[in-house]
Write a structure and sequence with these properties.
The protein is of the alpha/beta class. It has a single domain, classed as Rossmann fold (3-Layer(aba) Sandwich), CATH 3.40.50. 38% of the residues lie in helices and 8% in strands. The protein has 7 helices and 5 strands. It has a 5-stranded parallel β-sheet with strand order 2-1-3-4-5, with helices on both faces. The longest helix has 31 residues. The N terminus is likely disordered.
Length: 294
């Protein structure tokens, strides 16, 4: 997906931000005797691949919108990891083991027994959860006064069913990572705050306050599910929601880390902008460092 070019020389700035904030202290000098960098596999959907954040990674299938400045690339450079980035916009859990589009390898093909670090962000597209609500709530709320939560009334049963159907295969897929890469440290990356807890911004997102709050609660619910699985399975949950509070898509340019539905600067609504991606990288890199990566 095409978007306005935002990065230019900011990729280097982002890396410097990640590196300095973590006080990595990594030597830049080449050392002929150093060990090979740990192998890092990044799996996930558009909140990992970062469509609209240019430039595209050279190996990215066009439909994936995989940026060379997404958080896996920034983290890999900061921590000196050898990255295989399989993330792709629109990915669902089923695309871990199946081809998302003709000629595209399953994301689990990125996993090796020698892989030492794996990050996963997945769930928003399962059962078409996020995309159904993005379109459905816009239609449900269009032209209505800011009263109640019309979208919630229409889609509450759909959401409950999506969670019931999506969680078991997602958790089973996460467990497969252990079998494919038994020595890897596993990081489950949550979703950021996309909508405010109590706001109204019809020029940016034409939803009622009640429906934006409801979508926010759905994000919290999905993150809680991901966190519970991580805690029960010796994985690390990376919370990107808490640091992003107050930087949702309703906020003004310069404050928001998520782009709005109307006049998105990246051309990709309800997804992280450059700052949002940089902040994700900080959280993921900090979690990896804390877990003993490098």
């Amino acid at each position: 997906m095409e978007g306005v070019k935002l990065i230019g020389g900011r990729g280097a700035i982002a890396l410097a931000l990640v590196a300095s904030a973590l006080a990595l202290g990594l030597s830049q000098a080449a050392d002929a005797g150093r060990t090979q960098p740990p192998i890092y596999a990044a799996l996930g959907d558009s909140y990992t691949s970062a469509p609209g954040i240019l430039p595209l990674a050279p190996e990215s299938p066009p439909q994936c919108g995989r940026s060379s400045n997404n958080y896996p690339h920034l983290v890999a450079k900061a921590l000196e990891l050898s990255l295989t980035d399989a993330s792709c916009a629109g990915a669902k859990t089923e695309d871990f083991t199946g081809s998302q589009s003709p000629g595209q390898a399953p994301q689990f093909d990125a996993l090796r027994r020698s892989t030492k670090v794996v990050s996963i962000s997945m769930g928003g597209n399962d059962e078409a959860l996020f995309v159904t609500l993005a379109g459905g709530c816009t239609i449900a709320d269009a032209g209505l006064p800011n009263v109640g939560a019309p979208c919630e009334s229409q889609y509450e049963a759909f959401v409950d069913e999506a969670f019931a159907l999506g969680r078991p295969p997602r958790e089973a897929a996460f467990a497969q990572v252990r079998r494919r890469s038994p020595r890897a440290k596993l990081f489950i990356v949550g979703y950021p705050e996309v909508m405010p807890s109590n706001g109204y911004c019809p020029s940016a997102i034409p939803w009622t306050t009640g429906d934006m709050k409801w979508f926010r609660e759905i994000t919290v619910r999905l993150n809680a599910s991901l966190s519970r699985w991580a805690q029960a399975n010796d994985a690390t949950f990376v919370d990107t929601f808490t640091p992003s509070r107050g930087h949702n898509a309703c906020e003004a340019t310069g404050t928001r880390w998520i782009e709005p539905m109307i006049d998105s600067l990246t051309g990709v609504p309800l997804h992280p902008n450059v700052t949002g991606v940089e902040r994700e990288a900080l959280e993921v890199a900090a979690a990896m460092k804390h877990a003993g990566v490098r």
